[in-house]
Amino acid sequence: MPDDANRPRDPARGLELPWADGAFPPASLAARRHVWESLVGLALHEATHALASGDVPVGALVVGPDGRLLGVGRNRREETGDPTAHAEVLALRQAAATLGEWRLEGCTLVVTLEPCAMCAGALLLARVQRLVLGAWDPKAGATGSVWDLVRDQRAHHAVEVIGGVREYECGQLLRDFFGTRR
Ligand SMILES: [Zn+2]
Description:
14% strand, globular, binds zinc ion
């Protein structure tokens, strides 16, 4: 898009989140940990909304390079009858719509459960820089458990993976869900 000096700059896109010093992610490990935990908390909240439609409670969100919230998603397979309506895919789509383009370079995808092969592929295609995940998925996880598609040397770029953030809570939400359905 051409830059027009007379046109006011586009307002920053996305929703501002209250990060302590404006730097995202913060430099100190403790502050980073706090930010990851806060983001997984937002994803956990989104995940609980899946329960209303009988969907497996998984929630995801995308934040931009500056830490602004660009997209949110939850698993909506049952609600929509769409086999690809995973939380991560919906969050990536919303983030791309917010930015007005498909490249999510510098962005962070946050999800309560380790992505499956489809979602791992989607986050690679979107050029997401970083993945923050809650519970590992030893049965179908594709970012370190069963497969590791995002750190494969054949992948176009490597994704930084931060796993096990609020792992117990993320896993317990799923255990509760499957416990009540069996
Ligand atoms: Zn998936």
